[in-house]
Design goal:
CATH superfamily: Flavodoxin domain
Shape: globular
Radius of gyration: 17 Å
Strand content: 15-25%
Bound molecules: flavin mononucleotide
Number of helices: 6
Structural class: alpha/beta
Number of strands: 9
Order of helices and strands: EHEHHEEHEHEEEEH
Length: 191
């Protein structure tokens, strides 16, 4: 199974990216191949001026086309996801998430905006034809201790929710993989 991970914070260090990296590690430990992208991999000018010919955007689109799922993370900015992430999503082909399972992760300063992923990001993922968008994980800033050593730490309740969401993601990816194997067997049978 192959997953693309996408860090959608324009800032570093980034709390939402901490969640993302823990998710990547969790998946890699279960033999999922993870290809990591971050907003910082893209030229700011390409994003700002909608350069559809950007080689980095084309590489992301090509990797997505061959992947089973997308694990993405964003900070909440002004009650939605980050605008910088939108500039990247706008450059992807219309069906970029067709047949993909998506797990969104988000961090915000206040739980007042814990539904931002549901009302702001999910419609965009649907427009990109995501097959299945799973129930995401929202963390407020107090649940991610950026000063912990040797690495940032999650509050236990958050770590538990993240693990549960990742287990569901893994299950959805496996389901998807077994359906495509079944489909190719069937096609061979019919041919
Ligand atoms: C420009 C800006 C706007 C923000 N707007 C919100 C907001 O509307 N609601 C909220 O809960 N947090 C808001 N925050 C706080 C961030 O969502 C929060 O600190 C988040 O964890 C940052 O994630 P990051 O470290 O991955 O960038 C905002 C932060 C910035 C810099």
């Amino acid at each position: 199974m192959h997953v693309i991970s996408l860090a959608g914070s324009p800032r570093l260090p980034s709390r939402s990216s901490v969640l993302l990296h823990l998710g990547e590690q969790w998946l890699q430990q279960r033999d999922v191949k993870v290809t990591s992208y971050s907003l910082h991999d893209f030229a700011a000018e390409d994003l700002l001026f909608a350069n559809f010919a950007s080689p980095q955007v084309k590489a992301l689109a090509a990797d997505l086309a061959g992947a089973d799922g997308l694990l993405m993370a964003t900070p909440v900015y002004k009650a939605a996801y980050s605008g910088a992430l939108k500039t990247l999503l706008d450059l992807l082909p219309e069906r970029a998430l067709e047949h993909k399972v998506v797990l969104p992760l988000a961090t915000g300063g206040s739980i007042a905006h814990m539904l931002a992923v549901d009302y702001a990001l999910k419609p965009v993922l649907a427009a990109l034809k995501a097959q299945e968008v799973l129930h995401g994980v929202f963390a407020d800033d107090s649940q991610v201790d950026m000063k912990a050593q040797p690495q940032p730490q999650l509050a236990p309740a958050l770590a538990e929710r993240l693990e549960e969401a990742l287990a569901n993601f893994h299950l959805a990816l496996s389901r998807r993989a077994s359906v495509s194997t079944f489909d190719s067997h069937l096609l061979r049978h019919i041919a």
